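forwarding from the other thread:

> can someone predict this with magnesium ion?

sure thing
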Amino acid sequence: MAGLQLTGIKKSFGDVKVLHGIDLDIADGEFIVFVGPSGCGKSTLLRAICGLEEITAGELKIGARLVNDIPPAQRGIAMVFQSYALYPHMSVFDNMAFGLKLAGDEKGATRNAVMHAAKVLHIEPLLERKPKELSGGQRQRVAIGRAIVRKPDVFLFDEPLSNLDASLRVQMRIELANLHRELRATMLYVTHDQIEAMTLADRIVVLNAGRIEQVGKPLELYHRPDNLFVAGFLGSPRMNFFKGSVRVGGHNNLTVGIGDATFDVDTTRTLAVGTEVTIGARPEHITLGDNPGGVPVEVHAVEHLGDVSYIYVTVAGSDVPLVVRSAPDREWEIGQKTALTIAPGWLHVFDEDGRACR
Ligand code: ADP
Ligand code: MG
């Protein structure tokens, strides 16, 4: 069991700088999920932690031990990739036992470790099969089982479920959560799946272009994003943004507006009247209806998903598009005129640098 300490971790490939100084403390047993756009350095960071890539600058500690120069096999880490990388000619049992045999483990102990992992992952009946006789989900379980038998202090997962179909992903997601509860190991997990991030993580780390944008509990990040990037990255459909300006400046309260509409926002920031801001509101915090004081809008598209509907509207007299979450039983027509209101307290305001004003 071990926590990790990342201090000023940088990674370059030749002239290409990929990680620009990552500082992060991870507690023993924590489930950390890394999210961020494709190419932002998630895989590079995991590969640096497990030792497949050399760190260009900074310090990496696993437990109390500085591991910058420790080879991968001695770091107490197991990594599970998106491609399962099983040996095709070996049985499931041998695939799982392979790492232990290499490490010179005794036969009995190897067998016990494989049988235990197979039980945890419900793959006991598959142990004699070859990888080609397995479904995608079963192969992924074998890859995870191979990691478990090594009893690592830290598990690294790089998009382990991306190759599975939707229903299997849900099942494996729940099993991973159970596995974490059972093993109590530290887990670092990369995904681009928002639901995996929100449901599995103790804390989410949002990466952007090789830098950390924000670290926090899933709902903390969702409801209190520090900046425009995090606000726009988490949530689907994403947060609505529109340009506004400060109508009444102040210390505890701002009034911001678009068109003729104004909204009051609690804040500790003082912004001058006239300051240009970006206003953000999530689809579920906006309601449509003929509310007095609402902002006039026109419906221009409707999506019924069954459990929920998304209504795309534009603010009258502008081309500002917004998406609103609506109950599925409400009828909407294209071209319909209505008004929107934003739930008090759920308006986000970002300054010219994209920092949240709170
Ligand atoms: P992510 O996993 O977030 O999609 P990666 O960590 O795979 O992103 O890649 C981050 C950046 O580093 C990309 O621009 C990628 O092209 C670059 N990169 C990754 N590996 C290498 C390498 N071995 N040599 C050069 N550039 C690399
Ligand atoms: Mg990647």
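Residues 71 and 226 are 37 Å apart (CA to CA). thats all i got for now
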